[in-house]
Amino acid sequence: MSGDRLSARFAACAAQGRAALVTFVTAGDPDLATSAGILAALPGAGADIIELGMPFTDPMADGPAIQRGNLRSLGGGTTLRALLAMVAEFRQTDDSTPIVLMGYFNPILAFGPERFAEAARAAGIDGCIVVDLPPEEAGELVPALSAHGLHLVRLATPTTDAARLPAVLSGASGFLYYVAVAGITGANSAATADIAAAVARLKAATSLPIAVGFGVRTPEQAAAIAAHADAVVVGSALVDAIGAAAEDRANDIPARVAAQVAALAQAVRTARKELVQ
Amino acid sequence: MNADVGSLRAGPDANGHFGQFGGRYVAETLMPLILELEQAYIAAKADPSFQAELDDLLKHYVGRPSPLYFAPRLTEELGGAKIYLKRDELNHTGAHKINNCIGQILLARRMGKTRIIAETGAGQHGVATATVAARFGLPCTIYMGARDIERQAPNVFRMKLLGAEVKAVESGSRTLKDAMNEALRDWVTNVHDTFYIIGTAAGPHPYPELVRDLQTVIGREARAQILEYEGRLPDLLVASIGGGSNAIGLFHPFLDDKDVRIVGIEASGKGLNTDEHAASLAGGRAGVLHGNKTMLLQDEDGQITEAHSISAGLDYPGIGPEHAWLHAIGRVEYQSATDSEALDGFQLLCRTEGIIPALEPSHAIAAVARIAPTMGKDQIIIANLCGRGDKDIFTVAAALGVTM
Active-site residue A62, yes or no? Predict the structure, then answer.
């Protein structure tokens, strides 16, 4: 797809011989104005790809950190329409950082899949991860996303065996998201050796870039994964920090998130060099 | 399914859909297990030893068949159709929930799972799950909304006596839907050794079919019993609906009997014209939650709204997908009863028949009280008495202004 921000960004990182850093924050957390500030600060801090959570009342694949982020956001009045307006505003100053929405199917269904895809594309969204929409049920969303040039990013997990993998890869685009632990976001961390083996197994089956997330909290953990994967996703650690700062009524939340992201970016950018030494 | 082509009993299709409803809307981590469960269930159905073990436990442990009881004083008081009550409140543990739990734990054993989890609202499903887990010696964790724990203390203690760990769920509205979220989070984390015994005919395929099949023992018995007593089928079936497992269990064997009118009763809480009810068919829209597409209480942005009912077991913003489909095609008629109508139904049954019903079937009794007088004395109603009311006496006392 021409003008595809995701492929361009993965290609650019690969050319630099490093993995991409994907940062997850929930849109509208803790409120829309602060969230817009966080979004604007992410690329400069070193986020290569932004994963933006669409808040939902019942995020059943998420741990306590992101559950609370969802509730803060909804409490602040975030709607899908407001989320897309925030992204459109971001696109006024940044037309190259890919933004992938992550969330649950019901808010998309309520918006209307066709209307959603059209509005998301117009706002500058590049793709979607829909946690509770496995390939078997994706028929209701895929045509609309395809028609508007949006990627549907699929998830592979430790339970995705050889029999299941073809179903996951069928129609996958943008990148493949490897969920490193069987579980919810922000819980346990997987062993690096297991992740390396899983990434190798997935790379044998697809040419899509492999992003690894779930249980990645620290620069050290990010660096260990960046040595093997095409991208590393950090989410709950950032959302936890946003929650703690919001509780303190801090007025410099975007700067705090940026500092945390900068440390992660530094680790990701040097991971393979240190590995060589 | 063995039903004929064109039968209303043939669903779901191969992907678990009842019309546009049902399906498998789960995280990818769970998909292989969901598919494995489906295969295990298909294999169990084809294995005579599975059915034989289930039948033996239903007879000797649960106490089936449950009586189909002609209620003479209720019939006389209402002055219309003859009213029969399907006495599933007489089952071991006091509700219909155990019919399902016995079957699911046998499946869990066949699949080699060593740990049981479940969600519960009123606590009836939690008690039934804790009961079968004790019977089969498996560790068991029950997720229950913190608000439900407050209003269902006797059942919480029962579960603990039975050896279950009861985990209070503090997220969201702190009721049944949040308990289900938390059980799903546990399951996705412990998928290798854990079996999730879902308590109602909802969730990802194959659960709606599995739970329905296990609960149709209610309707199969009732059909044979009424044919024996009256020599004909009833004119009307009535059951209350939260997720809808007792209702689908009674209704399903009669779906192809076109002359049998079937009415499901949702909980309309403080009224359908308020935002405090649990009637997802009357007041909801199609959406996706907890693994299935069904009718849901939600706002215009697709955020799930809180349900309300005086009955913790009906306090859920969704409904099983087969009911959503039966509603869409018009085979089953869905009405509702308010908290106050259910309280009237509760007292009516206590007073006329010496039976203290749970608040859930009290909604069905309220509907019977409304409909029976409009029917002829030669007509027949079967209402499902799916649970006994001991657990609810504190709630009822509070609602009636009585201090205990």
Answer: yes
Instruction: Give the tens place of pLDDT for each residue, B107-124.
Output: 999 999 999 999 998 899
Q: B284 to chain A: nearest residue by CA? A: A110
- Which of A136, A155, A164, A236 to substitute to test the interface with B, most B CBs within 10 Å? A136
Q: Which amino acid is at B8?
A: L
| pLDDT bucket at A276, cuts 50 / 70 / 90 | low
CA distances from residue A138 to B26, B205, B318 in whole angstroms, order as listed = 11, 15, 21
Q: Which of B188, B296, B301 sits opposite A183 (nearest CB)?
A: B188
Domain A5-272 classification at class level: alpha beta
pLDDT at B328: 98
Under 8 Å between Cβ of B25 and A105 = yes
**Domain B64-94+216-399 grouped into CATH 3.30.2000.10:** no
CB count in 10 Å sphere of residue B100: 29
DSSP 8-state class, residue B86: E
* Contact between A212 and A181 (Cβ < 8 Å): no
Is residue B19 less than 8 Å (CB to CB) from chain A? no
Cis before residue A166, ω within 30 degrees of 0? no
Q: Which residues make Cβ contacts (< 8 Å) with residue A166, sequence separation at least 6?
A: A205
Q: Does B33 touch chain A (CB under 8 A)?
A: yes
Q: Do the two domains B18-59+97-211 and B64-94+216-399 of this chain adopt the same fold?
A: yes
Domain ranges across chain B: 18-59+97-211, 64-94+216-399
CA–CA gap between residue B126 and residue B117 (Å, rounded): 9
Q: Answer yes or no: are the C-beta atoms of A217 and A264 closer than 8 Å.
A: no
Burial of A237 from C-beta contacts in 10 A (0-12 / 13-18 / 19+) = buried
- pLDDT tens-digit map of A120-174: 999 999 999 999 999 999 999 999 999 999 999 999 999 999 999 999 999 999 9
Q: What are the residue boundaries of the structural domains of chain A, listed by start? A: 5-272
Query: Is pLDDT at B26 greater than 80 in this prediction?
Result: yes
Q: CA–CA separation, B183 vs B401, rounded Å?
A: 35
Average pLDDT over residues B329-344: 98
Residue B67, phi-psi category: left (phi > 0), alpha (psi -120 to 50), beta (remainder): beta
Top-level CATH class of B18-59+97-211?
A: alpha beta
pLDDT recorded at residue A83: 98
What is the per-residue DSSP string for B156-217? HHHHHHTT-EEEEE-STTSSHHHHHHHHHHHHHHSTTTEEE---SS-SSTTHHHHHHHHHTH
Angstroms from B15 CA to nearest CA on chain A: 8
The two beta strands, B194-196 and B115-120, are parallel
Query: CA nearest B293 in A: which residue?
Result: A106
* Whether A164 contacts chain B with CB within 8 A: yes
